[in-house]
Each structure stands twice: as C-alpha cells, then as structure tokens.
Design brief:
InterPro entries: Ig-like_dom, Ig-like_dom_sf, Ig-like_fold, Ig/MHC_CS, Ig_C1-set, Ig_sub, Immune_Resp_Modulators. By secondary structure, the chain is mainly β. The protein contains five helices and 44 strands. It has four domains: 119 residues, Immunoglobulin-like (Sandwich), CATH 2.60.40.10; 111 residues, Immunoglobulin-like, CATH 2.60.40.10; 112 residues, Immunoglobulins (Immunoglobulin-like); 115 residues, Immunoglobulin-like, CATH 2.60.40.
Length: 523
C-alpha cells in the first residue's frame, strides 16, 4: 500500500461465535421416528461442523451416532440473516428403541473457526415409552386338505425378546379348548423365533402346525392369544370358520388301515350326483317317480331335499308328510367295495295339470364334504291329458287339460236383402274350460277401423249357450242377428273374435264383403 487508506470495519471482518439453544426433545415412543433438534444462530462465516453423539445408560463412553442404524443426520441448511450472520437447525432423526435408547443421553457438539474449542448441548436421559406389540391376522393356507400338513401363522412385531406369550386355542361346535402341543400329538406349536428390526425392536411369527381331520377341525375357529407387558389386556386374533376340504379318493382307492373307524375319521368323499330321471310321458292322475342317482360318497350322512318351482311362483319345498300328492321314500345306502356309498333319491307323485304342468323339480344334496349343496333340476314338465272317452258327461274332470277352441268360418246367408232379418253364425268347438268370450265387429266399406257391435235395433247378439260334450270339452255357436241396409252394410265385413284362457291371442274369423241387394234395382 503506497498511501495510507481508511476503512470502516464491518461484521464480516470478524468471525462471530455461534449461539446454541437447548436440544428440543419430543415425546419418544418405541419404534416411532422422531427428531432431536438444536437451534444454532448468530455465527459467521457459515463453515459450521455439527457432530451428534450418544452415551448409553450406565456407560461413560460417547459413541458417534453414525454407528447406529436407527439414527440419521440431515444436512445443515445455513440461512443468512439481515445482519449477515447465519442460523441453522441441527437435527437428528431417531427411531428410538426401548432396549438401547431408554435412559441414554444425546449430545450435539458444534465446532466453528471463531471458537477455541467445541461447544455442546446435552439432553436429559431419554424416556422412551414402550410400544404395544402389533399382531397381524392369522394366515390360513388357501385350502385345508384332510390328512395333509397345514400351518397357521400369526405375525407379531414391535416387541422385545422373550417378553411375548402366545397361546393357541380352538372352538368347535360351541366348545372351546386350549391347544397344548405337549399333550396333543395332533398339534405342534414351534418356539417363537425373534428377528431384530431396524428400529431395534423384534418381530416373530406364532405358528400352529397340525394335520386337519374333518371330524375335529371342519368349521372350527382357531384363536391366537398374545400377551405382553405393555398390554392392558391380551390381543386375540381369530380365523373364520375353517372348511376342511375332504381328501377325495377315486372309487376303489379309498385308503384304509384295516380299521373302518379310522378310515371314516380320516377320509371324506364328495358325492357324485346324476341328473334327475323323468319318465318320457306324464299323464295326469297316474303315479310316477322322479329319481336321482347319488354315488361315491363317504360317510353315509347324506341329506336330500326335493323342491318344486311353478311358473310365476316361488320355489316350494316338498314335504311328503303334509302333501298327499307327493311321497319321498327314505334313502337306502348301499356300501361299495371301496367303502364309499351309493343311493337313489326318489320322489313319487301323481301329477295334475293345474299344479304340475310346466313346473320344474329340483333335487338338492347336502353332505359334510361339500361347502355348497349340489342341485339337479328337471326341465319344465309337460303334462299330457287327452280328452276322455265317452262316459258320464255330468262328471267334470278337474285335472282336464285346457284345450284351445276350434273356430269355424262364419256362415252367411246366400242372398241378403235390405230390411229383412238374417243370422250370421260361427261354430266353436272342442274347448276346455268353458271360459269363452265372443265379440262381433264390423268393418265398413272403405274404412280401416273396425266397430264393435252392441245389441241394438239393427243388431242383436244372443247369449252363447256352451254345451259340454262326452269328452268333457265344450261347443257353442256364436250368432249375430241383423237387418242389413244397402247404405250401411253393402261391402262391409263382419268379424267374429274369440277369446279363451288357453289362447295367447284371440282367434278371428271374417266374412267376405257382404253383397246386399239394392232395393231400387227391384223396379
């Protein structure tokens, strides 16, 4: 410097000592991540070094926390202030462990060029709250097979070693029993094996190993009960109703040990259910049998239910005791050489047209081996009822099949003159029952619409007399008595419309356009 210069000293010309706040400690819970934070301010320049250390309970040694995998140190973020100094927050991300962190002290040590030695802040001995264990649901194999090894598992986490007690029990048919693997050769309970986690807690898996049998384990509920010092009450996990799938054997290959009782207890075979056999032709008032073959099942506790579904009605269970029309014989089991059983389910009945025509019958089979019943169903039944032979015409057959009417052509007089009375008539026959209605209509020349005729001065419609025939069907003659006029009836068509309960659509018969003689042509 050739000439002396004057300079006003500034804050950046001198290093400034950092100011440390106390370490902020939040509530610590075992296994839950938290932060220890220390505010550092009013330092310059920004080349600050922060080190976190830990002194475990009962030890005088300080250990750098970077050696612990449950600790993470985020990078410092220096924030410049208006007075050109800096501030930052030193943080330690900690997932506390009851075993290693309860009672420990953490130290935040700060070094800076302005300092002759490091400065530090310490926590009080940490108080880590014990965390209750987490117990998962019981894991059940996708399908339990009788006589095949199975294992139920229940995951337990956030615990310390050797402070968990697990008890297995079972409820079946309303009876609860504790499972003791030492006294029950059928069940085996392995010792708990602990695995250390990153948060210094442990996890383990409670297991129950057993060989299911249908009689002892089907529709049973298994319970895993977990006790821990941090729990006010034990935690229980339950399975749903276990469905033990039977070990189904092919006919002739049912394995036995020479003891029939043991074979029955260890092997269950699902039934094979054939289609319902229906007689080819069903006549009303005659006795018939529907039958369904059931085979290859074990044991012999089968339940069969017959039902009927009438068109437009709800399904009805058939009870042979309350319905005289139906009779269900008891099942007779026939034991086969392979120790399975066969039987035939039967329904004896006397069909009637009103109750059984187009009805469907179902045979529902239930068995311990089945999760859902097996059902077989007939097609809609066709009742055949021919007209009866000549007999007592006064005796009405209540099971008579409905018959559609036969409608003849309209008989028209050969020559029609104005102002003279004539009769159009239509023969209707072979219908049953006698629920017939007739309507007369007229379509005038050149018109598209028809007019329904009512009895009047010019048109009279006599009542229909329905006569029962020897075959119990009915016949009648529909008549229209009228006095034609040339102006209104020449070229007109007359229609006889017949409705009957068995018809989906009415039957119509039409005349040709009438030819009414013009009275003026007589002169």
């Amino acid at each position: 410097m050739e000439e002396p210069e004057y300079k006003e000293p500034g804050i950046t010309d001198f290093p400034w000592d950092p100011v440390l706040g106390e370490i902020n400690v939040q509530t610590l819970r075992e296994g839950s991540e938290t932060k220890l934070q220390c505010e550092i301010s009013r330092y310059f320049p920004d080349n600050l070094t922060v080190t976190w250390s830990k002194r475990e309970k009962g030890s005088n040694d300080l250990v750098n926390v970077t050696k612990y995998y449950n600790c993470k140190i985020p990078d410092l973020q220096h924030v410049k202030q208006q007075d050109h100094t800096y501030r930052c927050t030193a943080s330690l991300d900690l997932t506390p462990s009851l075993e290693s962190d309860h009672g420990a002290e953490f130290i935040c040590r700060v070094q800076h060029p302005s300092l002759k030695g490091a400065i530090e802040r310490r926590t009080e001995p940490l108080q880590v709250l014990a965390c209750a264990p987490r117990v998962g649901n019981i894991i059940v194999p996708g399908q339990l097979q009788c006589n095949q090894l199975a294992e139920l598992q229940c995951k337990i986490s956030h615990v310390q070693r050797d402070n968990v007690t697990v008890t297995w029990s079972k409820i079946q048919k309303g009876k609860k029993e504790t499972i003791d693997s030492q006294s029950k050769a059928k069940y085996y309970i392995p010792d708990l094996t602990y695995k250390k986690q990153q948060n210094h807690s442990y996890s383990c898996s409670a297991s129950l190993v057993f060989i299911p049998s249908y009689e002892l384990d089907h529709r049973a509920v298994f319970i895993c009960r977990v006790q821990h010092p941090n729990l006010k009450a034990p935690i229980e996990r339950r399975t749903k109703l276990l469905l033990s799938s039977p070990q189904v054997q092919a006919p002739g290959k049912l394995e036995t040990t020479g003891k029939e009782e043991e074979a029955q207890a260890m092997t269950v075979c699902a039934p094979h259910v054939g289609d319902i056999i229906v007689p080819r032709q069903l006549q009303c008032n005659q006795s018939y049998t529907l039958q369904c073959e059931i085979s290859e099942f074990h044991p012999d506790n089968l339940t069969v239910t017959w039902s009927k579904i009438q068109k437009g009605k709800e399904e009805e269970t058939i009870d042979s005791e309350s319905k005289e029309q139906y009779y269900i014989p008891d099942l007779t089991y026939k034991k086969q050489r392979d120790h399975t059983y066969n039987c035939t389910a039967r329904l004896n009945f006397t069909p009637s047209y009103e109750s059984d025509h187009e009805a469907e019958f179902s045979c529902r089979v239930e068995h311990p081996s089945l999760e859902e019943p097996i059902e077989r169903r007939t097609e809609p039944l066709e009742m055949v009822q021919t007209p009866r032979k000549p007999g007592n015409p006064g005796k009405k057959d209540k099971t008579m099949r409905p018959w559609a009417p036969r409608v003849g052509d309209i008989i028209v007089p050969r020559q029609l003159h104005s102002n003279k009375s004539y009769t159009l008539q239509c023969q209707i026959s072979q219908f049953y029952p006698n629920s017939l209605s007739v309507t007369w209509l007229k379509k005038q020349k050149g018109e598209k619409e028809t007019i329904r005729l009512q009895s009047s001065e010019r048109y009279q419609i006599p009542d229909i007399l329905q006569e029962q025939q020897e075959d119990h069907t009915y016949s009648c003659t529909a008549r229209l008595v009228f006095t034609p006029s040339y102006e209104s009836d020449h070229g007109a068509e007359f229609i006889c419309r017949v409705k009957h309960s068995v018809l989906k659509e009415p039957i119509e018969r039409r005349t040709d356009p009438l030819r009414v003689k013009n009275p003026r042509s007589w002169w």
